[in-house]
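Question:
When you can, review this sequence-structure pair and walk me through the tokens.
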Amino acid sequence: MADNYDTYTHDELVRLLRERDRKPRFGLVWERDEIEHDRAVNDDFVALDFDGSLSCGDAPFRNLIIEGDNFDALRFLRMTHAGKVKCIYIDPPYNTGNRDFIYNDRFVDKDDAYKHSKWLEFMYRRLLVAKELLAEDAVIFVSIDDNEVFNLGALMNKVFGEINHIATCVWQKRYSRENRGAIGDVHEYLLIYAINPEIFKERRNKLPLGEKQISVYKNSNKDPNGLWRAVALSAQGFRINQMYEIVSPITGKRHRPPEGSCWKVIEPKYHRLLADGRIYFGKDGNSVPSRIQYLKDIEGMVPWTWWPHEEVGHTDEARKEIQSIFGTQTAFDTPKPVRLIERILRIATKPNDLVLDFFAGSGTTAHAVQKLNKEDGGNRRFILVSSTEAVEEKTPPNPPFSKGGMAGGTNDAHHPPLSKEGITEVPFDEVIMSESNVFLPPLEKGGRGGFPEKNLCRDVCAERVRRVINGHENKRGEMVAGLGGDFAYLRAIRIPRGRVYENIQDEQVWLALQLIHLETFQPYSMEKAVQTAEFDHGLIAYCAKVNADTLAEIERLAADHAEVIVYSWQPALLRQELMDTRFSFAPIPQFLMDRFGLGADV
């Protein structure tokens, strides 16, 4: 709560006022002291559990779907993927007050005095971590509507810097008239920020021309260069060396630039264009000169801030996509159309880029990634984070660990998946979903309105991506071919700060180490004494136990590599036994805790 100024001395109050006067007053401020602390912001270590039964495709896995609180997932990804992500797209809760935004397990309704402050605090914490994941040439796109667009813009300025604002795009989400409000609401926004705008401008892609843009190119004169159109040769402004007279070689008519304008090119460049047959004076030769632009020379269009539904889809299209995949539109209430996310990816990504969506909702981002990969042969990868949802945790307490601090048994034994067995299934159209990407928490025992609860990540997000990858039957009974790909299904697990040594498991360690060094990962193998994987510079190895067999295995596996990084619970012992200069050693779990940010005092 706010300070009790009655207890302050005169000198303390004067000092406080002087400090306040020295601080800049312009910028976004919200009541951080007056709202309850965000419980997702804690000192717990975060690990990921692999669930093979819910994963898709064969290892090594290139793509990740993470179930859990997205702040937990972001903290884990900061440990493994800092500076690696090229594009982030998120569709956060819009804070409409209509049961769409949850803060500390409670809905924030429209009458909450701190509704904006809670939303800002929630977003601020996540955006700060997300920024650390972005590469120098990366960009972030955030969908939002009128409820928080102005606050979000100020918040993005605070986190990413006002100078790094690229654009605010307007998406026409409806094609039919909206008459319920004083002025019909038919649009949403996309706020776009880059880490380095100049680098991003050089890196971003132009958009391919659509049918509407291509239709303006004609070839009535049967030009051997193909379709063309006339482009104005004049531009607003005044430049003395671009104010010359042009004489039509056909009729002799003389032309000066229109008032307030100049020609776009200097006179020598004009004469080169004229000699190349690239200047057009109209059908009769008397028109103001223009430049001939051939369709074959067009690399693409510079993206604009206006995104009409004809080009990127609308909400009805998005719901029909959901219906085609699940057989019902109500599997998820507010999906984005695939074409909208495709537009983002076309602008912001190259074929081998990593894309992150930590408000993944129904999984549209992964759908768009795989669709674009299929189209251009790319190898874009995705990481999706989606909420665990309303299914109550039925995981038993962790069993005891061995004295050596190593986890006994397999990871699945400690954290069994929340399988569909034991949960009464109902059709997707009977499941009540929220109005935003954040699924509703349970309102009463046994589910909402008598229906059993669904897990948004498992039953909607991952299931959609699985069907997109493998193929599925649409609502008309027709088979839709799969787009190919894979994903590993992972769960974010919190480990108390003081219990990392006792609770972290071999499977979790090996998964994290691979994601730090590689773009893919193989699940932990209980049959192998030493887990190994090749990376750019050599070999990484995880040695859970040190004995004569594991030492021999490490030396055998490392024989053909110039550099070998060995992670172990007993690095000092390994260092004594493996004297080869190719070897370097790192302590587990301390190496991971240091990267996570817990430090050596744990």
Remarks:
- Residues 211-297 form one domain.
- The chain has three domains: 64-203+303-395+410-488, 211-297, 496-596.
